[in-house]
Amino acid sequence: MKDLFDISGKVALVTGGSRGIGEMIAEGFVANGVKTYISSRKAEACDATAARLSEQGECISIPADLSTAEGIKTLVGEIRSREDKLDILVNNAGATWGAKVEEFPEAGWDKVMDINVKSPFFLTQALLPLLEQAATGQDPARIIMVGSIDGLNVNRLPTFSYGPSKAAVHHLTRMLASHLAGRNITANAIAPGPFPSKMMAHTLDTIGEQIREGVPLGRIGEPADMAGVAIYLASKASSYVTGVVIPVDGGITGCAVTL
After folding, report:
1. Which band of pLDDT confidence, cut at 50, 70 and 90, is reported for residue 258?
2. Which among 192, 168, 184 has a CA at the least distance from the CA of 242?
3. How would DSSP label each residue in 140-177?
4. CB 164 within 8 A of CB 147
């Protein structure tokens, strides 16, 4: 029982790992003995984060633009050249777009859907052989998708493609869980609420206090909150859990009050 949450010695890839939610998850993995690859579009930021996290353990930067098939191919090729198995895949890279409903552009719709839904599917598809090499019945390989409470609830921001894309991520998670269970690969999703990140920075700056007041636990999420649930989903403690979406939101979803 004492080893339930031990993830040391595993190999992980965290997309969008240079900042925000991805960085929080990557730091939790690195600090707990996981050889962690991080990827993001901006090479300088990816390299800098990897250098910082390497002070706690092993973190390797592989910059790649996952919005393109070529970028996915590049990342997968790099991982395959370095590893013969992959224990944990965290599909976190994402994008958002905001505009009034009358002005919302097709480019904004396509960008968000492509990066948030299409790219994680095809990256997962390409990495299945490495995940299968790591998978056993007692300790499955793990796919962790990062969705959002915006895929569970409706917010008032004009991000018309973001919420639907994250709802699609949640359902894709269930589809993957169903189809990959027989291969000893689990798939679960984290649905973050308000956490400090570049994507949330403007929102927190403008209506941060209002958001805090709407969180039953009365605060914005912290890095340890995100790292904790990711470590659980990557550890033996969750070996019998697949196809679920876990809100990590201070109670916004689970404690919603309707009048």
Report:
1. low
2. 184
3. -EEEEEE--GGGTS--SSS-TTHHHHHHHHHHHHHHHH
4. no
The pLDDT tens digits for 46-76 are 999 999 999 999 999 999 999 999 999 999 9
Q: How confident is the model at residue 117 (pLDDT cuts 50, 70, 90)?
A: very high
CATH of domain 11-248: 3.40.50.720
Taking the domains of the chain in order of start, what are their residue ranges?
A: 11-248
List, by residue number, the catalytic residues. Answer: 162
Q: Of 31, 227, 231, 254, nearest to 142 (Cα)?
A: 231
* Residue 253 pLDDT class (50, 70, 90 cuts): very high
Label residues 159-188 b or e (16+ Cβ within 10 Å = b). Answer: bbbbbbbbbbbbebbbebbeebeeebbbbb
State the distance between the two ends of the chain, measured CA to CA, in whole angstroms: 43
For strand 141-146 and strand 11-15, is the pairing parallel, antiparallel, or unpaired?
A: unpaired
Q: What are the structure tokens assigned to 259, written together?
A: 């009048």
